[in-house]
Structure formats: C-alpha cells, structure tokens
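Dear colleagues,

I hope this message finds you well. In preparation for our joint manuscript, I am sending the Peptidyl-prolyl cis-trans isomerase (Robertmurraya siralis) sequence together with its predicted structure, so that both groups work from identical material. I would be grateful if you could confirm receipt.
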Amino acid sequence: MKKGHYLVIVLVAVLLFGTYFYLLKSGQDEGVEKENETFPQLTTEVLPGERLVELETSMGIIKIKLFPEQAPKTVENFITHSENGYYDGLTFHRILNDFMIQGGDPLGTGAGGESIYGEFFEDEISPQLYNLRGALSMANMGVKNTNSSQFFIVQRKHVDENQVKDLEKANYPQKIIEAYKANGGTPWLDQAHTVFGQVIEGMDVVDKIASVPVDSQGKPNEDVLIKKITVLQ
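The corresponding structure tokens are as follows:
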C-alpha cells in the first residue's frame, strides 16, 4: 500500500472516531443538562419570580405557589380572578378521592366558567411542570386549548408500577419519576392539562376535602366552599 493511501485511511479513521466521541459527549451533556433542569414543584420554597396564594376553604387553608415563568397567561388568569373575587363562595363541584378536587365553576356543574381574556385560552405545557400530587392544574373541556376558570388540585397518593415503567420508557426526567414514585400523582394528565402551581402547605386539607361523601358523579353531598383566594405575593 502506498504511503499516501495509508495516511488517507488514518486521517479518515481519526475523523470518524472524533465525530463519534463528539456525538457521544454531546449526548451525555444533553442528558446532564436535562437532568439538571429546574423542577420548581420539588421544593416548597417560593423561588424568585414565583407567586403565592392562600386558598381559604370551608375545611381549612391551602397555600399554593404559582409559576408565571412557565405558565404566564394561566397564572395571570388565576391571579386576576382571585383578586377580583371571582372564586369567592364557589364550590369544589367535583371531588374524586385518590384522584383530584376540582373547582372554579360559577355554575357548579363543570360546564361554566370564563377566562379574563373573554374566551378560552391556550394550554401552556412546560417540560419543567408535571401533574404530581399537589399540582394545581387547569381543567378543560376535554380538548386542548379550552381553559377558562376551572382548576383542580391533584390528590392521588400513589403511582402504579406499570405507570412508572411507562415514565421510564418515555424518558421522563429521573427526578420527576422519583417524585411520582415517592408522593403520587396523575402522570397520564401530563401534556393534556396546564400545570401552573403546587401546594406547599395544606395537603392535609386537600385530603380531607377528597374524603367527603359524593354522588356517582363526584358531586359532594354537602358543599365544600372556596371562601376566598388571597394573593400573598
């Protein structure tokens, strides 16, 4: 073999190996970056830029931090409604134990409500937010981009083993998988409902509300009221 041909082969080999290791390193860096993403639901601390509300119910106080960076229109809608007294005196009209508690409908039927924008507004799905236990999420009309005033708090205390496997197959962030395993939640609602807040105090109240007697549609036998929502910061 001529010396020139040998040098060409060596150079090609070096380029191929260099490309391989570059792609491998890039993939590793991407994985580390994804794993190190901030998941604000995993801390009870109210971080810079977040908002805080106090939801006073007929069964106790629930404090929730909100995420305007990840869901700006949704948080603005909720904050404005709260400050204007829109939610005062409404009920949790749909309660499903080991699932969620839902409110924010002036009609109390699940068919009412309006946004501050005068119409339905779009979903704000963030890769940083998930339907973990304690998540505050928007209820919708069963299809995308139909948000108004209704919301729910995830109350489910566990995630099935098969669901955990599905999360792993879907390449969920490991920190989120661990949070689902440790605390529970409703991962099948991810990507379908906008998460915009997280309970940081009062999950015992959420559990108490979830345990009230209801009819076959989840309507409580006795009203559970949202007395007032106060914006604390």
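For the figure legend, we might mention the following. The CA atoms of residues 98 and 156 lie 4 Å apart. Strands lie at 51-57, 60-66, 90-91, 94-96, 100-103, 135-138, 151-154, 195-201, 225-231.

With kind regards,
E.M.
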